[in-house]
């Protein structure tokens, strides 16, 4: 196999397996571009992206520009003379001038079965929608977000207990394996990319912190999927006695009797919330500033006397 000279662009943990796989496969990863260090945690300490940490461990030069639209940054990237740019969850749209830099083109590792779920949060979107399967797409990049032709796809079922966190880890490894399998054949022209069917496109936006607030218009099943989709961030929650109550694990049960949406009840020694067609039983919850606890422990702390209702969005 001929080693390909690669410029790698990625930021979160999802991108790390792809970076490591390229190096282990013998490719020449000439440099890594990632997001700048950002404040994180209660102390606001500057924290490097996961990809930066991995690149430094691998001895690869790291660039962290605030913007890719700066001509000086573009000249710096062009001077690397990559044959291919590989992108995995970098976090910003690449300008046309940056897309034009690599001689052979740009390849993206995307965590969905395109054209379903173009956008910034495809894993959470698949869980929220109740999709039965998801997967990874290795695609050629285009100026429009996630619109380029697809080189290869691999599908996996979504387990009924999957969270965004657990599914992201699985898809990160699957994406890395698929990337190194297909990249050399695409590079030589043996493997051709296929245009996406525009009639099947769906989109997902960037998740906001407030999205985890469960809504009054949800079904019980939708609320349960939201609990899993927003794990680990931003976390699903309701307002309870004037404070936020995080919900980390839950399951759906039938309503024992008609109840107003948002009403609380006890189901099998666990707290539960009524939705329009069922109840969400809370298996694991978290008060602000406290540890996660089981639903029965929470109920014991309330001495069996739950507030009459919770606040939904």
Low-confidence stretches: none
| Anisotropy-based shape | elongated
Task: Note the run of SSEs as H and E.
Answer: EHEEEHEHEHEEHEEHEHEEEEEEH
Instruction: Give the biggest beta sheet.
Output: 7 strands, mixed
Put simply, the count of helices is 8
Helix proportion of residues, in percent? 25-40%
Radius of gyration: 22 Å
Count of DSSP E strands? 17
The class by helix and strand makeup works out as: alpha/beta
- The end-to-end span amounts to 55 Å
* Sheet with most strands: strand arrangement: 5-2-1-6-7-9-10
Mean pLDDT: 97
The percent range for strand residues is: 25-35%
Can you describe this structure?
- The chain has 313 residues and is of the alpha/beta class.
- The protein has eight helices and 17 strands.
- Helix 1 runs parallel beside helix 2 and helix 1 (16-24) packs parallel to helix 6 (164-188).
Main traits of this protein?
alpha/beta, 29% strand, 313 residues, six-stranded antiparallel β-sheet, 17 strands, seven-stranded mixed β-sheet, elongated
């Amino acid at each position: 196999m001929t080693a390909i000279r690669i410029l790698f662009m990625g930021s979160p943990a999802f991108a790390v397996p792809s970076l490591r796989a390229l190096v282990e496969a013998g490719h020449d990863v000439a440099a890594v571009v990632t997001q700048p260090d950002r404040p994180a945690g209660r102390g606001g300490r500057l924290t490097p992206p996961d990809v930066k940490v991995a690149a430094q461990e691998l001895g690869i030069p790291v660039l962290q520009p605030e913007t890719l639209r700066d001509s000086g940054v573009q000249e710096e990237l062009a001077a690397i003379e990559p044959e291919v740019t590989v992108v995995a969850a970098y976090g910003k749209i690449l300008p046309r001038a940056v897309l034009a830099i690599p001689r052979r083109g740009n390849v993206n590792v995307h965590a969905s079965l395109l054209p379903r779920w173009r956008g910034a949060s495809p894993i959470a979107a698949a869980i929220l929608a109740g999709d039965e399967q998801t997967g990874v797409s290795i695609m050629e990049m285009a100026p429009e977000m996630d619109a380029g032709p697809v080189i290869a796809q691999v599908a996996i079922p979504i387990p009924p207990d999957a969270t965004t966190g657990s599914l992201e880890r699985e898809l990160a490894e699957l994406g890395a394996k698929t990337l190194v399998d297909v990249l050399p054949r695409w590079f030589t022209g043996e493997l051709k990319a296929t245009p996406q069917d525009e009639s099947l496109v769906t989109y997902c936006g960037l998740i906001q912190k407030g999205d985890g607030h469960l809504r009054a218009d949800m079904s019980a099943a939708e609320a349960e999927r939201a609990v899993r989709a927003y794990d680990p961030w931003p976390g699903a929650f309701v307002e309870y006695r004037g404070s936020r109550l995080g919900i980390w694990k839950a399951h759906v049960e039938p309503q024992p009797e008609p109840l107003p949406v948002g009403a609380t009840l006890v189901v099998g020694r666990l707290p539960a919330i009524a939705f329009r067609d069922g109840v969400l039983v809370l298996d694991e919850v978290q008060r602000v500033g406290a540890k996660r606890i089981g639903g029965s422990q929470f109920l014991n702390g309330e001495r069996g006397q739950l507030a009459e209702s919770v606040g939904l969005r």
